[in-house]
């Protein structure tokens, strides 16, 4: 007992006199390391008789606990002292001039979002938003995608395991189309909105990520036809790519929430081995669109014989890649500062139609 008490006093004294974290760590290793004095005593417990272990066990474990607590307390004291010393000596001179070029940059996705908002605002569109966690009805059923509809296979959906308080199936929205439904059920036509935002699908490669950005447009009014859709998309794409020679091609397609549905291709030219938007040497798909399905209009409580409309949607990240020459979608979300320094935008590069949306 006397030897253990003496050892405890020696170790605690060494802890107290340790004046650096390295010195304290050395004391810890000498006491609690594999070959440490306290560890050696703990190993002797297995060789004792039950009667001896009953007496010696609490004493040796008490030694280990006292040493462990002592080291923890001393470590906290040393760390506090080091921090206080740094706070006392380090200073930030707020009178220094700001750097000539601000280090912060605007992410290309944010920049393109602003460009799109500027273009569509000039055409009379308002920006609408909705929740990223959606219920099954807004995300699928109201868009003419009932539970047994094969079109659900087109969406690799992230579902939540539990239903909400109202018993609804919840999910991360797979598109921003639920914003269209929420708008049509909350305000009277005529409606002219764009819905930018984050969407989620279980997919990942050079051109797909589990989270990406999408923008959709919706027009609901009387007498709307496919010609209005084509003009809107043509005006939008020419303003966005800042070229008057942008040519569109509409191909029949299928979307459950539009009828008729069309894929929109944009013409491109090959310059120095790279595709450049403009001209018609080839065609590249950029967005999907169509006339809003009668069932969608009915699901929102409107009369499809009175109100018609069109809708369109495209990936914001894809638009950024096409305009600014990026070739891998995954880099958008890596947070690599070198990538942002190369592709990012100055905070004062505010898109304007008069000065150029891509300024």
In short:
The protein is α+β, with helices and mostly antiparallel strands and 359 residues long. It is built from 11 helices and 10 strands.
Structural features, described:
- There is one protein chain.
- The chain is α+β, with helices and mostly antiparallel strands.
- It is built from eleven helices and ten strands.
- The strands form two sheets. Strands 1, 4, 5, 6, 7, 8, 9 and 10 form an eight-stranded mixed β-sheet that branches. Strands 2-3 form a two-stranded antiparallel ribbon.
- Helix 1 packs parallel to helix 4 (50-89), helix 2 (21-32) runs antiparallel to helix 4 and helix 5 (108-122) packs across helix 10.
- The longest helix has 40 residues, at 50-89.
- The chain is elongated.
- The relative contact order is 0.11.
Report strand %: 15-25%
Total number of distinct structural domains: 2
> Structural class, from secondary structure content?
alpha+beta
Query: Looking at this structure, what is the CATH superfamily of the largest domain?
Result: Bira Bifunctional Protein, Domain 2
* Quaternary structure annotation: single chain
What is the average of the pLDDT values? 87
The backbone outline, from C-alpha atoms, is elongated
CATH architecture of the largest domain: 2-Layer Sandwich
Helix content: 25-40%
CATH topology title of the largest domain: BirA Bifunctional Protein, domain 2
Ranges with pLDDT <50 over ≥5 residues? none
Return Rg in Å. Answer: 33 Å
Q: Please report the number of helical segments.
A: 11
